[in-house]
Amino acid sequence: MVAEKIMTLNKLIKLIAILKKKGKKIVCAHGAFDLLHAGHIHHLVEAKKLGDILIVTVTPDKFIKKGPGRPRFNEAERLRFVAGLECVDFVSLNDTRDASHAIKKLSPDIYVKGKDVKFKSDKPEEGLYREIEALKLCKGEIRFIESLPIHSTELLNEYFSIYPKETNECLDIYSKKYSLEMISSFFDKIKKMKILVIGDAIVDQYQYVALMTKSPKSNHLVAKYLNEEEFAGGVMACANHVAGFCDNIVLVTCLGALDPKEEFIKQHLNDNIVPHFIYRHDTPTTIKKRFVEPAYLTKFFEINSLTETDLPKALNDEMYLFLENEIEHFDLVMVADYGHGLLADNVIRLLSTKAKKLALNVQTNSANYGYNLVTKYPRADYICIDEAELRLSAHSRTGELRSLIKETSRKMKTDRISITRGHKGCMTFAQDEGFKEIPVLSTNIVDTVGAGDAFFAVSSPWTTLGVPMELVGFIGNIAGAIKVGTLCNKSAVGSDQLKEFIERLLAGRNCS
């Protein structure tokens, strides 16, 4: 009986058309139903009273981006849960995130939602707004049902948490100290900032290969080429991340005129980024090509096409003049320094002395190991590097981490530091707050490439607002958790995505 209720959307469309010809009034409900509870049952029972046939569309797994470990139950399980209710006549897996497309196809007489989401009905960016517009096209009616004060997220956080005890205790503390309203107000302030992002342009290439065997004629491995993908990495990735939160972004970087990749780069920059390109005529734009086995994204080998020399003097002068004329107009300057020759000493001094607020991410990689140290900058307002980069800059392999952070803070006259530590989360420091350790929040790791860029890009504007560093680290860890769930720099961390993640993490924790 339960299995018979579950239908494809196309099959359900044909069935509903037949039922409507017979004079049946069709009621439609929609949701994720990740943890079916009394609130859902009340909602669906009340919905059924409004008509003859109740159909329910369920959100697919791929569209549920509500934070770590979600959905808790996969789409097949969730379809069975809903179909098991006596009040439900038919269930179908939706084909988009909201129900607007399904509404157009099914043409229900009545569409039901809970009164607790009615406030979203006049906001164009919300799914409910799009659903109501679709309902108007098929001359249907929206009904809002009084909801029971029960929410899946709160129950999942309390009884199905995917985090260890220490992480849950940390999240409990955050939920009591920082309300969602307070956090939302910071998003509004960041949106109005003017931010300059400067650094090395990198195009990441993934060459997907199937490893075959060792060559029988010589001592090397052989792989079969499958396909490839390109991503806008380096400073472009940083700019795309911050552009999801702020409307006014200017990007300054250098492209290699021998193979600039300019059209590709422009197509992969957010619309609210204004690029200022400098063209170097003796080199191509930096490409980092990784050979990857696609099933598990195992990286076998990497080839870098780049130059290791500084910008020619004429180009350095061009960039210096641009920065000198423009830098005072920005609330924040973010530097993504990958050590590929873009930033000469005079530019570094200019950034360090003239920027109203300066945030630094100075990275160590295979091309600059031991040479590209954050201490080459005389000062910064915010530093975000990983533990290995901190230790290299302090020339200390085994020194106590907190002591190294304090010494770096003193040397660089910076009050705010985030040190990312991979699976250990991050450690933050501020002179007036001391040290805070924030646990890692990622649970689904697809690809770690670009996680540090996401942490830096998303957390930097928060430091400009003067919010506590423990909140900065929390936001950065969430950005990193979102980023490692995606392939390379295929997509940027967005404002809505971050807000939803925060809401799901903290929901219901401050009820007691």
Description:
Helix content is 37%, strand content 25%. It is of the alpha/beta class. The chain has two domains: 2-159, HUPs (Rossmann fold, 3-Layer(aba) Sandwich); 181-506, Ribokinase (UDP-N-acetylmuramoyl-L-alanine:D-glutamate ligase), CATH 3.40.1190. A nine-stranded mixed β-sheet has the order 11-10-7-14-15-16-17-18-19, with helices on both faces. The protein has a six-stranded parallel β-sheet with strand order 1-4-3-2-5-6, sandwiched between helices. The two termini are 41 Å apart. The model has no long low-confidence stretch (mean pLDDT 89).
Number of domains: 2
Structural class, by secondary structure, is alpha/beta
Order of strands side by side in the largest beta sheet? 11-10-7-14-15-16-17-18-19
CATH architecture of the largest domain: 3-Layer(aba) Sandwich
Outline: globular
Keywords:
about 500 residues; UDP-N-acetylmuramoyl-L-alanine:D-glutamate ligase; nine-stranded mixed beta sheet; 18 helices
Q: What would you say about this model in short?
A:
α10 (235-243) crosses α16, α12 runs parallel beside α13 (345-354) and α17 packs across α18 (495-506). The chain folds into two domains: 2-159, Rossmann fold (3-Layer(aba) Sandwich); 181-506, UDP-N-acetylmuramoyl-L-alanine:D-glutamate ligase (3-Layer(aba) Sandwich). The chain has 18 helices and 19 strands.
Helix and strand topology:
Elements: H1 2-5, E1 6-7, H2 9-21, E2 26-31, H3 38-48, E3 53-58, H4 75-83, E4 90-93, H5 100-106, E5 110-114, H6 127-137, E6 141-145, H7 152-159, H8 165-177, H9 180-191, E7 194-199, E8 201-214, E9 221-234, H10 235-243, E10 248-256, H11 262-267, E11 273-280, E12 286-293, E13 298-305, H12 313-326, E14 332-337, H13 345-354, E15 358-362, E16 382-386, H14 387-394, H15 401-412, E17 416-420, E18 426-430, E19 434-438, H16 451-464, H17 469-483, H18 495-506
Parallel strand pairs: 1-4, 2-3, 2-5, 3-4, 5-6, 7-10, 7-14, 8-12, 10-11, 14-15, 15-16, 16-17
Antiparallel strand pairs: 8-9, 12-13, 17-18, 18-19
Helix pairs in contact: 5-6, 10-16, 12-13, 14-15, 16-17, 17-18
